[in-house]
Automatic annotation (TrEMBL):
A motif (GXSXG) lies at residues 34-38. It comes from Sphingomonas sanxanigenens DSM 19645 = NX02. It holds the Pfam family Patatin. A motif (DGA/G) lies at residues 195-197. Signal peptide: none annotated. This is PNPLA domain-containing protein. A motif (GXGXXG) lies at residues 7-12. Residues 3-208 form the PNPLA domain. It comes from the Bacteria. The keyword Nucleus does not apply. One of its GO terms (molecular function) is hydrolase activity. InterPro entries: Acyl_Trfase/lysoPLipase, DUF3734, NTE, PNPLA_dom. Gene3D superfamilies: Cytosolic phospholipase A2 catalytic domain.
Amino acid sequence: MALVLQGGGALGSYQAGVYDALHEAAIEVDIVAGISIGAVNAALIAGNPPELRVERLRAFWDRLSGWLPSFPIWQDDRLREAIHEWSAGFVATFGVPGFFKPRSWPPLMAPPGSCEALSFYDSAQLAETLDAFVDWDLLNDGPVRIAVGAVDIENGNFHYFDSAHERLDARHIMASGALPPGLPPVEIDGRWWWDGGLVSNTPLSYVLETQRAEMLVFQVDLFSAVAERPRTIMDVMAREKEIRFSSRTRQVSDALLKLRRERETIRRVLAKLPAEMCGDPDVVALKAQAEEFAVNVVHLIYRANAWEGGARDYEFSARTMNEHWSAGRAAVAETVSRSEVVARNILDGKTAAFDLARK
């Protein structure tokens, strides 16, 4: 069982709600992979025992959102949008305690090459927050494998820090979420890293490549590839971000299904070969390549409200955080209520991708 978590800043509480509902349904994962805020949630899951995971996720998100001024509940979308934009502007101005804060001086006034010259915000507080909520020994030695993606800023190579191959700490999680120019790069063993979302915002492909076994994957995306045509310039900004950060999801799913069809064709051809060719090294190698393990991917995709614009990924108000959390729980409930199609596919040994929570 795998949990795949996309990046998306403040929208990450949707993923926390998804895990909350999965845990409540006694569904636990063996591997969790994340990018950016998905990496943070992954660390909170892998770095805590099952009975504490939801509690730690809740405490983390409460810390990030509990300090913003609260407003009355407005049902009118225009008023809610105004409050939403104001809250995001407040975050952009003052930062988020426990996560990041604005630098004292603009980057252009800092010495070239210094960390202060490379970002508008200082994210050092996030290391302290992660240390407070994550048991790093459990994360590295426990039963849940974790992988987080980042990109090397000097050569542009994408890399996954994987607990199956190396020991992870707060630096690796922060590297996965170091989105420029807002947040600074993170140095690990002489190399400098930025947010993995610059290359790919979904770690699904990595999980599929490294786990050669039958698998059920819950992929939790924070940006939807499908939305209405923009009507205003603010809509354009929001839609551009959705497309940029969601594009890889469909590409990976399509590639998975294409590979399944190709393997089926190879197996049919191999079945027609004469018996005396079965021991040929090339045939043996081709059989190994054509071996297929059923993989079922269940998509859980956050679909933004009408009042959420391009600032939705840095609007950390408590009300919005709780709404995202509830939306994640609701998506799991909807998926579970229609899960018979997934169960049937698993029993039949087939590979497929599902979006059962889509209205």
